[in-house]
User: What shape does this take?
Amino acid sequence: MKIEKVVEKFYDGLAEHKLYGRKCKECGAIEFPPKYACNTCGYHETEWTELSGKGKLHSIILASTLNKDPWNSELKNYSYGLVELEEGVKFNATILGIRRKNAKKLREMLPLPIHPVFYEKEGFTTLFFELDEVEGIE
Ligand SMILES: [Zn+2]
Assistant: This one.
């Protein structure tokens, strides 16, 4: 299988439990998942940068029959949400640890701190996020 270099570096990073993005040499914006060009200012030169993985969850979309991802079928409690890393980049991700039961309460507390979970499956490492401990929520 031939994969683009930028994608390869990203997945190699995940296997080492590291998050790599591309930082724009012109405006400093970060592309994650990484792309070669900057989507913020359009500049063509970006460079690798390691991201902390720490950030905040801004929304909770429960997995339902309509949006269930077959890739996630073995996961018990997951949802989707908008993640913003402390480096300023925003993207949609799969979030662990949110149940139908606690989702309403958690929504009222957004944004909530999250951290990355590196999930090994079939020789690949997939990136998920999980809520940090939230007081009063099981
Ligand atoms: Zn830029």
In short: The pocket of zinc ion is lined by residues 24, 26-27, 29, 38, 40-41, 43 (CB under 6 Å). The chain is about 15% helix and 40% strand.
